[in-house]
Hints:
alpha/beta, Rossmann fold, seven-stranded parallel sheet, two-stranded parallel ribbon, 11 strands, 43% helix, 14% strand, globular, binds nicotinamide-adenine-dinucleotide, binds thymidine-5'-diphospho-beta-D-xylose, NAD, dTDP_Gluc_deHydtase, NAD(P)-bd_dom_sf
Amino acid sequence: xxxxxxxxxxxxxxxxxxxxxxxxxxxxxxxxxxxxxxxxxxxxxxxxxxxxxxxxxxxxxxxxxxxxxxxxxxxxxxxxxxxxxxxxxxxxxxxxxxxxxxxxxxxxxxxxxxxxxxxxxxxxxxxxxxxxxxxxxxxxxxxxxxxxxxxxxxxxxxxxxxxxxxxxxxxxxxxxxxxxxxxxxxxxxxxxxxxxxxxxxxxxxxxxxxxxxxxxxxxxxxxxxxxxxxxxxxxxxxxxxxxxxxxxxxxxxxxxxxxxxxxxxxxxxxxxxxxxxxxxxxxxxxxxxxxxxxxxxxxxxxxxxxxxxxxxxxxxxxxxxxxxxxxxxxx
Length: 331
Ligand code: NAD
Ligand code: TDX
């Protein structure tokens, strides 16, 4: 494998993946296909030796040509924000379902290896007092338009693998945080609120639990699965942070940044309560070990806070519009 096509490689996790590949597999050629929606940015790839093709994964002709040139495809491109999917689900259907279908048809035609990036949210949620964790065999039960379209795309990948022999793997990962994450998401929103002199905003009571993972740990797992994963398999990715609720995360951010109080704002409709991942298969089969393992996320949050402090020019231009959109919804 020496030429990888990375869809959505100008977004948060995709750009961090390209960065990781550039450092760890310097002999690989990387092509990024990205539409540069509000979430994708050319400057996320600054300084990297990757070719950026600006285009849509729903464009069958373009996708066919790029897939033909590559040895493998890592598919990150998606509409990714739950709150946006509650306002207008239609781009989620287009990109997450039709875009994945378009990619699968090209991968099938050219017999290329595919790794599909999915999410813990396809499994639905657990109640707060349920100690269970999601595994590769947990039944799908998505709650939001976002997670329903991600579940749909996973079903397509499995069907193409079984019906047409597409050489695919899938990973379902929990909530990521780290550098280059859009300020619409929970952790960067609160960090940049503090930096901008605004009050951090907690939805509802903040009892919800997300199994947070640093983006580098997620991407190390993706690279491992791409190179060593068993074809046709799904791997759950999670770093055992399912004891930290949103309230604790916001309090920790305030503490680490020396900020005052935070405020409770309108809750998200249909808010998933708890996600928890059991990544035993990935750890035992492929030997994956996360680097950020302290039980209170302190090291990862400190690194992330430092990045937003040092990169105000990156987030400042999109901060006001993001906050205005939240304010319109009482959040
Ligand atoms: P993001 O929103 O930051 O980036 C998505 C990227 O896809 C952007 O660069 C955007 O321009 C691009 N894109 C969107 N529609 C496109 C289209 N039609 N054609 C080409 N490019 C398009 O998202 P992210 O947080 O980096 O998530 C990446 C992937 O990881 C997604 O598939 C998401 O479902 C999955 N995931 C995310 C998380 C998380 O916590 N962020 C956790 C688990 C899984
Ligand atoms: O301002 C906020 N205040 C708040 O309390 C925001 C933006 C969020 N929240 C809460 C809602 C969630 O319980 O924080 C939690 C995390 O919210 P998001 O960052 O929006 O993430 P989530 O909805 O959990 O989904 C994320 O993880 C799974 C990613 O956005 C998805 O792409 C991924 O699939």
